[in-house]
Amino acid sequence: MISKEKQIRKITFVGFLMNIMLSTLKIIAGIYGKSQAVIADGIHSLSDTTTDIAVILGSYFWSKPPDVDHPYGHQRIETIVSIFIGIVLLIAGAGIGIDAIFNIQEQKRFNTGFIALVASIVSIIIKEILYQWTMRTGKKIKSISLTANAWHHRLDAISSIPVLVAVCVSIYWPAWSFIDSIGAIFVSFLIGYAALGFIFKGLRELIDAGAPLEMIEKIKALAIENNAVHQVHAIRTRYVGSSLQVDLHAVVDGNMTVYDGHHVAEDIERRILKYGPDVVDVVVHIEPEEYAVH
């Protein structure tokens, strides 16, 4: 069974090699096809390798077991990596938008060759394949950094579409090549929107934001399934990476023995870990009914 971290590194390394290959292909095709748009797209793909490197290196750190200085583990490093990816995406999106605005102002025209058209099509297809593979695996192993990097592949493919349009327009209707810049501005907003989503999601985890109300209710329902539990309250949650840590108070009969109370706590923990919403740790405080807060 391949570990979560090894799967992350394997997929991300494949993406890293593909980004290097695509960057080389597009830059060469742009030079020989006389397409500034394709050259710029190749440089953009080269910048994608920074996020691949961040995920590969980060996975070596967040997979470390808990230690004296980090009793809850190192999963927050994955959150920091996902925020970094979001920042890189935001900068890339802003760069694409600014370049497009300058192109419109300067009324640049691109007279491209067929080789640039082929390079753009190949890039879009490979990037979409990488997105599907990375996203499917990221969801399966519940890795926020991998799903963030998957969206980076998808957004790179989307941002190549205006370049493809520009190539086609430059070949068949050179006077209309400004359409590329308009499409690039639209894509830059899409990239910025996705990037801000990753950044804000990561920041919520870093400030210990709790789970949504529906998840709290599910946790409460699982705990109260134990017949010995009369009431559940003081439920607290926080995210560690993509998973939840939970602690709660379970109210039981005050005459229950410590032995029985321990088994009730174990049963609640087992239920929540097995059926809860991505829960990795549960702390149950057994509280006698006489002292419960109603």
Describe the structure in brief:
The protein has two domains: 4-206, Alpha-lytic protease prodomain-like (Up-down Bundle), CATH 1.20.1510.10; 213-291, Cation efflux protein, cytoplasmic domain (Alpha-Beta Plaits, 2-Layer Sandwich), CATH 3.30.70.1350.
Characteristic terms for this protein:
Alpha-Beta Plaits, three-stranded mixed sheet, 2 domains, mainly alpha, Alpha-lytic protease prodomain-like
Describe the protein in words.
- With 294 residues, the protein is mainly alpha-helical.
- The chain has two domains: 203 residues, Up-down Bundle (Alpha-lytic protease prodomain-like); 79 residues, Alpha-Beta Plaits.
- The protein has nine helices and three strands; from the N terminus they run ααααααααββαβ.
- β1 and β2 form a beta hairpin.
- The mean pLDDT is 79.
